[in-house]
Amino acid sequence: MPTETFIAELQCVAMRYLIDHFRAFPDSCDSGCRFGPVHQRMLEAHKHWHEAQESYDDPVLFRVGLNACIQALRNVTFVLQKHKATIPCFDGWYSGWRQRMKNDRMMRWLVEARNLIVKEGDLRTNSVALISVVDSYLNPRGLGIPTPSDPFTPIEFMAKTAISSIPKNVKVDGYLRVERRWIVNDLPEIELLEVLSYCYEQLTQLVTDLHRQTNMGSDDRHLVKPRCMLVSEDDRAIVVNLKDYHTIKLCSSNRPPDDRQIGEARERYGEINPGIPDFRSAGLREIANGLLQYAAAIFRKDGCHAMTAWLRKSDGVPHLLAFHHPHDRPDKFLIARQIAREVKHYKADMLFVISEIWVTSFDPESSGRGAVESPNREEMLSVSAIAQSGETVTLAAKVVRDGAGAHLGETNILSDVEDYFFCPVREVWNESE
Question: 20 to 30 A from 194, CA-CA: which of 161, 227, 299, 302?
Answer without folding.
Answer: 161
